[in-house]
Amino acid sequence: MAIDLYRSLGSSTCTAVQLVAAALDLELNLIDLNLKEGEQLKPEFVKINPQHTVPTIVDDGFALWESRAITRYLVNKYGKESTLYPADVKLRALVDQRLDFDLGTLYTRFAQFVYPQMSGSPPDEALKKKFEGALEILEALLEGNVYAVGDKLTIADLSLVANIAIFEAANISLEAYPNILKWYELVKSTAPKYEDVSEKALAHVRLMIAQLIPKQES
């Protein structure tokens, strides 16, 4: 039976869950919620997820949200022989660290810098420098590694790549970060069904960026 995934098209966290499911060859029943229209606030969804956030999965009656919790759950339940979430304690700790960095630093600083521009604010140079600092940390973390942790694809890569793709769609240049660029191309070419999963989401983001950010420049 397919796992229900409540998502918003263009959400990098939803894309990350889809990438992990693809890597595990899991079938998802995609349920799109229009967040602008408040569909996440409908009583039937709030009953599933009182926090009314996406992504949310329902797996045979079990509901779970927060993308990184979902990806860990999927591997723990369906990919016990997979290397996506290593059994080795130290490697798993490093995967968790990368996931925490992705959530608490990298994506947060991107959102703080870019999202105000989508509401008409001019770019904030201080926030730009903080975001660039996060990219510099990722550049350093990738030094000496093939993937985010060691030489095998993990859920850390699939979470990070979903966000890096959003950065690129938002016209963020990665040219100053050779380790990131090399890793990014590798993950795109080795993550199962990457193009199939990401194509529509990134097209949606590019359109949204093109419509909103130029408005503050005119």
Unreliable stretches, pLDDT < 50, 5 or more residues? none
Which oligomeric state applies? single chain
CATH architecture of the largest domain: Up-down Bundle
Rg calc = 17 Å
- Please report the distance between the alpha carbons of the first and last residues: 51 Å
CATH class of the largest domain: Mainly Alpha
Total beta-strand segments: 4
CATH topology of the largest domain: Glutathione S-transferase Yfyf (Class Pi), Chain A, domain 2
The main sheet comes to: 4 strands, mixed
Q: Looking at the structure, what is the overall shape?
A: globular
Name the beta content range: 5-15%
Tally of DSSP helical segments? 8
Work out the helicity level. Answer: 55-70%
GO molecular function, one term: glutathione transferase activity
Subunit structure: Homodimer.
Family: Belongs to the GST superfamily.
Pfam family, one: GST_C
Overview of this structure, please?
The chain is α+β, with helices and mostly antiparallel strands. It has two domains: 3-78, Glutaredoxin; 89-217, Glutathione S-transferase Yfyf (Class Pi), Chain A, domain 2 (Up-down Bundle). Helix content is 56%, strand content 8%. It contains eight helices and four strands; from the N terminus they run E-H-E-H-E-E-H-H-H-H-H-H. A four-stranded mixed sheet has the order 2-1-3-4, with helices on one face. Strand 3 and strand 4 (62-65) form a beta hairpin. Helix 1 packs across helix 6, helix 1 (12-23) packs antiparallel against helix 8 and helix 5 packs across helix 7 (178-190). It is globular, with a radius of gyration of 17 Å.
